[in-house]
Structure formats: structure tokens, C-alpha cells
Amino acid sequence: MSQLAANDNLWCRRYHPARKATVRLVCLPHAGGSAPFFLPVSKALSPAVDVVAMQYPGRQDRRTEQPISDMRVLADRIYDILRRQPPLPLTFFGHSMGAIAAFEVIRRLEADGQTAVRLFASGRRAPSTYRDDNVHLRDDAGILAELRKLSGTASSVLGEDELMRAALPALRADYRATETYECVTDVTVACPITVLTGDSDPKTNQDEAKAWAQHTTSAFDMQVYPGGHFFLTDHADQIIELLHQHFLGPVR
């Protein structure tokens, strides 16, 4: 284990420290998202699981930092942080942008001779699927319109101009990181992948979600839930139970 750096806790949020845990869940949020999105997961799984929610720079208490607008740079930074953490078996849960970031972090783990237990890829089409999205090129109003369409930000926050103006640089950087990311079909990881998707997600249809199967040399399964891009907020109990079962034994 490498020595912990002074700013590692800026990235790794442990809302319910689990010092005796024997497994770790790394949670990576969506574009514009932040670590507290995973508070319910942390509360439900701790102390049996060391739940680490990633806080990207440029938001909330890190709002004065420069956001990262390149997916591979973001993955490099996250991997560098994780390899300094006390060693435990790693499972990853990423939603939307976070699913791609998790996939890229696992690639770095495996290139370094390590393994991941499983990737839960939520609300995101497969890495090699392509859409000509350009949200990051829109003006501020265009980005806010996209958020309203996806219902990913509380309506009370969307109505607060000052809060949204403060969030826009990170949002634009996140969209740029996601929309400029490219991956070919033969890039794989060795860990199993479980895909979670909403049946009416405008950002991911079921064929695009199934295409994740091309990106693992291990097992693949897919869970479809009623709902749009943020289906997981409406089905939190079911998804937390899925994670419980993963840590108790193989997901079936």
C-alpha cells in the first residue's frame, strides 16, 4: 500500500466508517453528481462494507478546484487515490458518467496486476456505443434544460439561480468528459459486469445497455427497472438489496 496523500480524503468520502470491513464498495456519481448521492447506500451497507463515495473536484466543498473534463484523466486520478487506500477486495458502482469512470479505473487496476470483484454499471450505455451528444457545447440554459429533462437535480436546486451558476463549470466539464470519451468494442475487463438500466431512459436503450456484455471476459447480467435516467432513486431499496446479496454471495 502506498502512503496516503494529504488530499485523499477530499476524494474518498466515508459517511459511515467501517474499520473492520473486509470488502469495499467504490461509488462513482453521475455528471453533476456528488458523493452524498450515495449516502443511503453507505447507511445500508456499513459497517459490513467499507463504502467509499467519490467526490470529484469542482463541486460542493471542492467547488474552488478545477473540474476534470477528460475521462481518462479522471480515471487516472481516482485509481491513484484508490491504490493508496488500505487493501480490500473492490466492487465498483457507477451511475451514468460514473459507470464509464469505474470501467476505466478497473482497466487501470487490471493493467497493474490487480482485480475487481464486480462492476455495477448503472444508467449508462456500453463504453463502445456512440451517440453524437453535445451538451457540453451548449450555453448555460441548454445545460440546465438537459438537467430538467433528466430530472437528475432536485427541482428546488434547479430554481436557485445562484446555486446552479456555481455548479455549471463542473457540469460542463463532466459532460465534456463523458461526451468526448471513446472506446472500441474489443476493450474488456476481467471482472463480471452487472448492468442496471431504466426501461424508459432517454440516454440508454436496452440494446445499448446489453452491449456492456462485449466489455467483459467474465459473467454478464442485466437488471431492468421501470423509470428513466434516474430510475435508481425510485428503486433504491431493490438496488441496495442487490448489493446486499452481492456481498453475501454471488449475484444470481
User: Could you tell me the radius of gyration in angstroms?
Assistant: 17 Å
* Parts with pLDDT < 50 across at least 5 consecutive residues: 153-159
- Overall geometric form: globular
Structural class based on helices, strands and sheet pairing: alpha/beta
Taken as a percent bin, the fraction of beta residues is 5-15%
Order of neighbouring strands in the sheet with most strands: 1-3-2-4-5-6-7
The beta-strand count equals 7
Percentage of residues assigned to helices: 25-40%
Query: Which CATH class applies here?
Result: Alpha Beta
Spell out the helices and strands N to C. Answer: HEEHEHEHEHHHEHEHH
Domain module tally: 1
- Output the CATH homologous superfamily: Alpha/Beta hydrolase fold, catalytic domain
How do the strands and helices of this protein lay out in sequence?
Layout: H1 8-11, E1 12-13, E2 23-28, H2 39-45, E3 49-54, H3 71-82, E4 90-95, H4 97-111, E5 118-122, H5 140-150, H6 155-158, H7 161-179, E6 193-198, H8 206-210, E7 220-225, H9 231-234, H10 236-248
Parallel strand pairs: 2-3, 2-4, 4-5, 5-6, 6-7
Antiparallel strand pairs: 1-3
Helix pairs in contact: 2-10, 3-4
Explained architecture:
The model is unreliable at 153-159 (pLDDT under 50). A 7-stranded mixed sheet has the order 1-3-2-4-5-6-7, sandwiched between helices. Strand 2, helix 2 and strand 3 (49-54) form a beta-alpha-beta unit. It has 10 helices and 7 strands. The radius of gyration is 17 Å and the shape is globular. The protein is α/β, with parallel strands linked by helices. It has a single domain (8-248), classed as 3-Layer(aba) Sandwich (Rossmann fold), CATH 3.40.50.
